[in-house]
Structure formats: structure tokens, C-alpha cells
Amino acid sequence: MRRSEVRERLRELELAGLLRSRQCVEGPQGPRLQVDGRTFLAFCSNDYLGLANHPAPARAARDAIERFGIGAGASAHISGHTRVHEELEERLARFVGLPRALHFSTGYMANLGVLPSLIGPGDAVFSDRLNHASLIDAARLSRAEVLVYPHCDVEALELRLRQSDHRAKLVATDAVFSMDGDLAPLPKLLELCERYDAWLVVDDAHGFGVLGHNGTGSLAHWGLRSPRIVYIGTLGKAAGVFGAFAAADAEVIEWIVQRARTYMFTTATPPPLAAALLAALDVIESETWRRTHLAALIERAGTRVSQLKCLGSPSASAIQPLIVGDNTLALTLMERLRQHGIWVPAIRPPTVPAGTARLRISLSAGHTQEDVERLFQTLETLYPKPVESTFPRQSGAGNEVEGPR
After folding, report:
1. This prediction's pTM
2. Is 206 a catalytic residue?
3. Of 96, 108, 216, 366, which one's alpha carbon is 20 to 30 angstroms from that of 399?
């Protein structure tokens, strides 16, 4: 893009209702957030278990500063891999019931590291239509052929696998899809991978800590175990801190250690964050009431979503989408909620496909039943009654991409 085009393109985004703006939060994460001197009841965070401001991880991080300092100083292959990083990886492997785990700086970097380590030119990636951007970019970065199958369409995936004569094959999928909250049919996907000799890479960003026995994730939820699975867990959502990990058979993880460029060529995560994550895992295992309470909130929210006249259906996860379609309407509803002291983000293309703009409600164990009821009572006063937009009208469809995010 030429410099002269930047202003014009920004104006086009504004007219289409696609211009993003950041809000500056003035305090810790939680069910209530401070912005511009106002307090909002917030349904916008992925802090599903309410651990982002939990005292135990914060205390562990402070203690680790005394022991390790702030920074890691180098990549893990040089001198950045400390004793606390090693303890975290061992603990994560035990937690999800897999032989070995490898800690990455972020979930995005985990996916970008794992896929190109396992496949390359002459191979094929089979990617769900609604996979997260990190999986889409990882597939492209691998230089393998990318074959996109319709969302959760097992029959379409089988046809593509059956027709494939590629040297190696890999199926990549979210476990819980971040914009709709629906679950991938992992047992059927694994069955296909067993039949057609393919890897199964599962990105469990929104299932880790929430699903499965004691929050151990989507593989436990479905009762799955296989040497074909490479499991990616995110640690900045339900775990409340930062980072991610890959877990699989020991030899697979060793290969990723040797080949993943996003692991080899970046400074290791600060040791205090690794210590905070160890404490967060303790909380997830011991404070089981958080998952029980969250499950009750999900059930209540699902009932209330079904009572609204909007597209989509209630989700069994902590993500409850209200699909309104039009970008401007989604922005207007978000603004009207803010006027009532409630923060629910409007999600628009290219994060979601064109014509499916929505409000994305994210529930947390920090919320109460009364919080959820306040949200839906307010929504009932705003939707589906007509609202006058305070934003420019949409001037066309959004930028639909090969796999939105």
C-alpha cells in the first residue's frame, strides 16, 4: 500500500462500520472494569475463571521476581529456560495427561511454531472454515497446500482426506470456536485422522481450564488420547496469566523444540509469569467451585439467549454470541449497552464473516446470576426493537476472509 492510500483506506473502514478503537482500562481485570472514570459491568474478557486478578498468582509472581528478576534475558535455547519454566512444562503435561509439554510466549506463536514443524511443501493442511487466525496463518507459513473444509463438516473433511495423495496430512481445528462458542466434533476428527494417517492439531484456547475433569480441557471432555494429537492450550484466558503450550508425545515435542522458529528465535517468557501460571494451575485444581459456578451461568445465559429473537443458538461454552448481522446495528447496540453501564464488544468482519456482525458475551466465574440477569434485561429493552444508529451507515459487505478472525 502506498502512503497516499492510508487515509483513504481508513475512511473506508469508518464508513463500513469496521474501524476499531481501543479502550484504556484503568484497573485490574474483573467482572467490573474502570474506563474513563466509569465502572462497567463487563462481559468482554476471556478470563473465564476470574483468575486474572487472583491473589495467589500475583503473589507467586512477586516472589519469583525476588528469585529470578524480571526478564529471561535470552531465548530458551540460550539461557532463558529457567527452573521455573521447567517446572511449569512438567506440571502442564501432568495436568492435561500428555507425556510432555512445551511452553510458548503466546497461543499465536505456539500455532505458528507447531504446524510448520510438522508439515511443509508437498504436504496438506485441512483447516476448518472458522479456525482462528493463528491456525490460518500457521497453515500458510508451513508452505503446505491448505484445504479448507466447511465448518465442522465431517463428511466434507473425509472426502478431502480420501482424495488427498499428499506426503503428510494434518487436520487443524479450534476445540471451542471463539466467535460462536460451539465445540468441534473432536472424536470424529480423530477417527478420520486415524483412518487417513493424519496429525490432529487441536487449539484449545477457550476450552483449557473450563472443559473436562478439573478443567483439564477438551481432550478430557471428549475422553480422547492418541499419539496423533498435538494439543495447544492457551494460558492467558481461563488460566488468567499469559502464554501457551503445546503437549504431545515426548518425541513430537522434542522435534518441535528443535524446529519451531517461534520458540527458537524469541526471548523466553519472563520467569515471574511462569511462576504465576504454576499458582494458577493450583487454583484451577483446588477451587472447583469456579467451574461449577461458571457452568450455572452458562446454562442461565443460554436460556436467556434463546428468548431473544436473534440468529444463532445458545452455546454450551462461556461464549454466547448474539448475531445481529449488520455492522452498524452491532455497534449501536454496543454503544447503547455502554450507556447503561454494560460492556459487551461488537465483533465485525474480518473477525467474523460478512453479514454476521454480533455482540459477543463472555462469561466469567467472577460474574453473579444477578449480573447475567441485568445484562439480558437491558438487552430486552434494546433488541429487537428498532434503534437509531449514531454511527455512519454501512457502505457494503465486510472483508470476508478464508477463515475469519
Report:
1. 0.91
2. yes
3. 108
